[in-house]
Amino acid sequence: MKENLQAIREKAMDLLNNVKELKRLDEIRVEFLGKKGELTKVLRGMKNLSPEERPAIGQLANNIREAIEEKIEEVKNELMKKEQEERLKSEVIDVTMPGKKRRLGHRHPMNLVVDEIKEIFLGMGYKIAEGPEIETEYYNFEALNIPKEHPARDEQDTFYINENFMLRTATSPIQVRVMEKEKPPIRIICPGKVYRSDEVDATHSPVFHQLEGLVVDKNITFADLKGALEVFAKELFGDKVKVRFRPHFFPFTEPSAEMDISCVACGGKGCNICKGSGWIEILGCGMVHPKVLKMAGIDPDIYTGFAFGMGLERLAMSKYGVKDLRLFVENDVRFLEQF
User: Fold this and answer.
1) Whole-angstrom distance, CA of residue 210 vs CA of residue 173
2) Which of 90, 250, 293, 307 has the most neighbouring CB atoms within 10 Å?
């Protein structure tokens, strides 16, 4: 058995001295030290030895196992070092090459417009107000003087959650909530997402953004409304832009109007964007209906106010000359990089 153990040691050392690959090294380890390896097979024959011979043979077997394991570890370190050196030679790094630039993100055009409008109105003394996107029937309709039979309440236009709750169709409910909690004077803007049951096309989306404004104080007139909105339009689109007001109807304002600006693309001469009229409608406005003030707990005999609301996507399209609303939500980097 001693001769067999010595023969195994010599054979293993000979193979280990000539191994060239880590894969082959692992095969040699299994071949000699594995459960079915040559050293294990010899040790199984120890049961046939006399009690006097077993300690000596056992000690010899352990010494040979340790010698083979040490040699395997030594060869493994040499092979790994050699492999690393060869890799460093083949993977030459040219430190003079320019680094790869990380592509930086861009502010979304909608955020640019929203922030610019906020700054305009903050500079005029307005505060920013927020409210829930899931609204009650009272705040979304009734408190805004929209009766139950009004077409705006139709299920074809509104995303109802149940009979009493829905996704807000405008940011107007925020105005009512503020009027209930605060005493005049009130001067706020309410930007946020709104939801309506529209088909997606170049000018419509079921999810879009609005910004509405409200001013309530003593002796507020339609002239104050026109003056504030004209300042806003010129700040956003430039001093050359002209504004006009056309009579309109909204349940929560009386009198009501729509405000147009001279087409920023053609300067009012007429083009395909303004459909040859030279004007683009950008918002609705009017004096707050006395009934709306009264329902919010404000005495309409003492206070008056004006309100306005605008679609932010439409403003962004006019400001940047974008013809398709869907570009704002498709996240095409080629489009966003232009801003």
Assistant:
1) 12
2) 307
